[in-house]
User: What shape does this take?
Amino acid sequence: MADVIDAVLRCLVVLGVFMVVPLVIGQMEHKAMAHMQSRVGPMEAGGFHGWAQLVADGVKFVQKESITPVAADRRVFELAPAVALAPYLVALLAIPLGPFFGQGNLIGQDLDLGLFFVLAAMSVGVLGTLMGGLGSGNKYSYIGGMRVAAQLMSYELPMVLAAASVAMAAGSLSLIRIADAWEPWWLLAQLPGMVVFFVAGLAELQRPPFDAPLADAELVMGPLTEYGGMRFAMFLLAEYAGILVLAALTTVLFLGGWAGPFSDDIGWLWTLVKVMAVAFLVIWARVAYPRLREDQVNSLAWKVLVPVALAQVTLTTVLVVA
Amino acid sequence: MTYGKGLLQGLRVTLKNLTRRSVTAHYPDVEPDLPARSRGVIALQEENCTSCMLCARECPSWCITIDSHKETIPATTEGGRDRSQNVLDTFDIDYSLCMYCSICIEVCPFDALHWSPEFAYAEGDIADLTHDMNRLREWMWTVPAPQALDPGAEPSKELSSWEAKAAQEEAE
Assistant: This one.
């Protein structure tokens, strides 16, 4: 019985994190992006500096009509938002938050193949956007969907190579053991890998500057063109949940996870702080850089990121063997 | 090393903005700080108006409607001649047509029209955008005082002649 309660409790905590942290990241994006552009962002909703803006947005989305275009592939179209969102929740189950006041590591379920599992789940999330693109019965959506496919193909490789480099250095695929094996000098030795992982993650999430599939100036909204109401909201939530998963993975793999002073007690807090810092980087990149053209997106992956990732793997191999 | 420079610049500019105060004007909460001669709304000093119709004729968008009648002022001295004077009946400005060109104000020979910086007079009904004489007169209270003269500038001729006349009357 205690096992069941334990499992349910862990699931509820993960679900809570999944529902709350992406909204915090979304709000941070609203405000940080605004101030980076000399604006103030939402100021009215909720009274104090528009803290309830995303809640208000959610209420608005719920009220909207759910429309399925006649030309759409109905099943695929309606299923796509769920396919986009659910994998990130699944991925979050296997990502450790760190020690919680000496109560052991805060994690949904520790897996021996944790890294493998999380990366696989992240790729499935992208399939949701692809389904939306191909199932909408809209040319813009279709082109956007093809771009998603091209991007997924290109960036999966450098991302997995960079992650493999850390796994090799730590000698494990378990996320907890990778973070435990982490040492500060890895910050330097794994720096190219970290950059590759972060950039490839951005591209996988189709975050600006890698949002060529959405590219509102040329493709309306890419695969999301025909979506509205709750389904659109789910895609949006998936985007922010994706940022959370990417930031958490970057933290656990490359930034030592809960490593920091008093990490036995407040390790989970260190992880959260680092996750928010990486999420801020994601937002910062969006504000600072213009969108890459479609050919630039792919040449960056194959001509820069893959060679760098391979070099990183080689370097790590030498370090581990030596 | 020109390749990475732009990337760093992008980060630097956005971070600098983040640390500065934003330039947003918080309008409904904070009244805007308008320049002294802002073209907000046209005010009518009804007492100065002679119904000469110059403004209505010059208005490029035909937004001014004027109606007046003549009144006779009886002669003040025995055997004198009666004078006639124009009295305004209607002076409407339709702000749904007005293009804020300021020609009516420039052309008015008796300074009956003035700019006021008040701008918040939106209406739910387009008919309410036509301000009548009384409403235009009310705007007069919001017209700012004329700009001060430059230091060392000659005072205006009207003022100096009025002062000279007053001094003369004082002496008599």
